[in-house]
Amino acid sequence: MTNKVFITDLVLRDGHQSLIATRMRTEHMLPICAKLDNIGFWSLEAWGGATFDACVRFLKEDPWERLAKLRKALPNTPIQMLLRGQNLLGYRHYADDVVRAFVQKSADNGVDVFRIFDAMNDLRNMQVSIDAVKKSGKMAEGAISYTTSPVHDIPHFVELAKGLANFGCDTIAIKDMAGLLTPSAAFELVTAIRAATGLPVHTHSHATSGLASMTQLKAIEAGSTIIDTCISAFAEGASHPTTESMVAALAGTQYDTGIKLDDLEEIAAYFREIRKIYWQYESKFTGVDPRVLISQVPGGMISNLSNQLKEQGALDRMDEVLAEIPRVREDLGYPPLVTPTSQIVGSQAVINVLTGGRYKTITNEVKLYMQGRYGKAPGKINEAVRDMAISDQEVITCRPADLITDEMDKLRSEIEDVAKSEEDILTYAMFPDLGRTFLQERNAHTLTPETLLPIEAKSSGDCTRFAADEFRVTLH
Amino acid sequence: MTNKVFITDLVLRDGHQSLIATRMRTEHMLPICAKLDNIGFWSLEAWGGATFDACVRFLKEDPWERLAKLRKALPNTPIQMLLRGQNLLGYRHYADDVVRAFVQKSADNGVDVFRIFDAMNDLRNMQVSIDAVKKSGKMAEGAISYTTSPVHDIPHFVELAKGLANFGCDTIAIKDMAGLLTPSAAFELVTAIRAATGLPVHTHSHATSGLASMTQLKAIEAGSTIIDTCISAFAEGASHPTTESMVAALAGTQYDTGIKLDDLEEIAAYFREIRKIYWQYESKFTGVDPRVLISQVPGGMISNLSNQLKEQGALDRMDEVLAEIPRVREDLGYPPLVTPTSQIVGSQAVINVLTGGRYKTITNEVKLYMQGRYGKAPGKINEAVRDMAISDQEVITCRPADLITDEMDKLRSEIEDVAKSEEDILTYAMFPDLGRTFLQERNAHTLTPETLLPIEAKSSGDCTRFAADEFRVTLH
Ligand SMILES: [Co+2]
Ligand SMILES: [Co+2]
């Protein structure tokens, strides 16, 4: 019996997003594309919210151009992107016409596989983008954001998977952004989803807690046929299980990937050199950090919190904040902690600790959340907290985007002085201020990417790490 | 059904040996011993060849005193050591009376579990030390050095395990020093050893290649009930799977260890601070390096080779050396690559490449090897190479130590001017020159440990890493 396992390599997106603050430049991707393209990966993940953001904000590259270049350089391998459902690659809900336009343009420029998730696991926030992908003729992968809570049991996740199957998704992804999925839970979950949907299951698990390779192995034994890994040079720690290791682990078994280690090593050797160029974005600690298994607070969130606390001169209150996060999450009905809910919960927890009284101050995001503006919470919302947040303001129960009228025309007219294409309008739609500035500078030929410190600077002289404190860490 | 899994934590020996060149000092172990002692580990590995060597050579600590102190600080947890069979902790075969004395003194000073291996997997080199352990009333763990070659199949390893069981070993260890054991091979191997011996199987696998956690999981499913892990602060990479991660992976399953993550985190937090003190011994790269899966040359050997080649100004010939190693190993009848065979094979491979003709020069160690002085090779020796090495010199087929007459009296008289105890004589026996100097300086109260660079030096000013180039890397 053979049950060949397929691999999605993440080095062009989640790998460098997790380890060097999403800073890898297109010029460092293209030279290795021919070799990547020859491996026979199920897909190469190469596009998403943070790469789009980093292109516009720091690298001064047009993200649409990157996509088109990669498409050309990877003629034989599907390109995969991560899409935040109705949020697309931005931080708010968009009108349906923007969602449709964005998906169509992404497909036109080269995306073959769309992995679609919603931070609330609210299926209504995913339906329009899934429909649009199907209409474009591309592959729709519905992603379940994995988390643990009293309401997140197997039947809960199976219901989500069934809903995604009903939407016509081609595959189901289990998205374990925090590394909380244990091998035994993965076995149970994959078995249940396979039984309920019959769809291929694609497993994405961060290596943060040291569980991911075991988790993927047990997911495979339960019938997951596609796994996300990253070539060794950008693997492990906050990133993902090592591609070569998973290939070696499965070689000669019924799950053999058919991929040759020698071919992977050529790619790994290339990226080992590339990684050195970005030394200034490295974290101090790149190993396994199992603390997430205790606090259930993902590593990326802790980095953000520690920056927030540092700004307030209150780094010593981290323990209180870590204890407050589960309480805020419970009050909010146990949302998974992933962009943007990770920021919503984290910021409110910081405020609850620093202001010396829970919910004495409440963020706008929590107010919107309590109004139902992010969708339906997985569990029950604490009504006392909701009263404090929004008193008698209306709570919506419809899909949030139902209240947003079409906005492409408006966006088009707002940016028509600088936009030269539909893609430009969508860039502006994702990042209004930043996008406008980017387009203006592009038109004026004054785009200037941030400076990379020379490699030599690392070993001679000052070696304080320039970890990207200013960058909002996303969870993905 | 419960099949509780037991854990040996390696932080006091293999963890720091693998990551900071065996430099951890006793003063940094003792403060955390009470907490380590309370976890309920099956054992704590704390003593071995490299720790003994580093104590005498660099730290200027009496290794016997370290053992006695740890024994006192760990009243409830068995202390485990790694012993190279007839080599003990040195680099030659010793007479049986030295083996017996060394084992007895180790037991007297605190060792409860002796893991015994031989680089050739020649059981005759392990029998006397196993007998001595049994006689001391302590636990004897017979270790199989895992490797891959045309002669190393499952029946071969099962024969070894049976032999160890016949010697009266209490447990069988699978010692995967290079990280070559795949999950599926582990499943097969553990199943076969369990069926053939009925003894508990203890799995030791380095995380170098990214396989070890998966390998241990499958070993457990096949019936391995004891696994070697290391607390997160000194885990992964050249070291071992993370203790917390394996505990979390097994929690709630039939293999639940019963260990609490909160308790482990207190220990991890302590060692995270300790590791910073030793920053000068860190390797540049601490992640997964799957290249060993292709070259089959363990990472520690590559470090040694690279130092040897650097000295000769021939670092550019590494690829040729890596290609030559499997050929030399084949000529020598496929010994496992572990101390001392890793050095024997590696040095000859370097010479074969640099002198421009294979075996134009032959090391003394290869000559001794060809005479049978290290024991019986697992496979057939290349007779043409043997002729070149030793022409018509005698080849022994007996156990090498059969030709060594008792030597304790001789050693005693050689060192009686400075030795103050049986332990001192044994220190001298392990390291004649170094040991004598150590004892003399100790008597004169002039022992001076090597200097640790201050932690501040890391982030201010020069940050060239002071990786311990002078230290002979052992494979373990
Ligand atoms: Co991710
Ligand atoms: Co070892």
Provide a short characterization of the protein structure.
Chain A has 476 residues and is an alpha/beta fold.
Structural features, described:
Two copies of one chain form a homodimer. Chain A has 476 residues and is of the alpha/beta class. The first copy, chain A, is 47% helix and 8% strand. An eight-stranded parallel barrel of chain A has the order 1-2-3-4-5-6-7-8, surrounded by seven helices. About 3% of the residues of chain A have low confidence. Chains A and B meet through α10, α11 and α12 of A and α10, α11 and α12 of B.
Instruction: Please state the oligomeric state of the protein chains shown.
Output: homodimer
Q: Largest interface by residue count?
A: A-B, 44 and 44 residues
Largest sheet of chain A: 8 strands, parallel, barrel
Major beta sheet, strand line-up of chain A: 1-2-3-4-5-6-7-8
Please estimate the helix content of chain A.
40-55%
Q: Count of DSSP E strands of chain A? A: 8
Q: Supply the CATH architecture of the largest domain in chain A.
A: Alpha-Beta Barrel
Radius of gyration of chain A: 22 Å
Structural domain tally of chain A: 3
In whole angstroms, the N-to-C terminal distance of chain A is 35 Å
Give the low-confidence spans of chain A.
460-472
CATH fourth-tier homologous superfamily of the largest domain in chain A: Aldolase class I
List the helices and strands of chain A in order.
EHHHEHHEHEHEHEHEHEHHHHHHHHHHHH
Mean pLDDT of chain A: 94
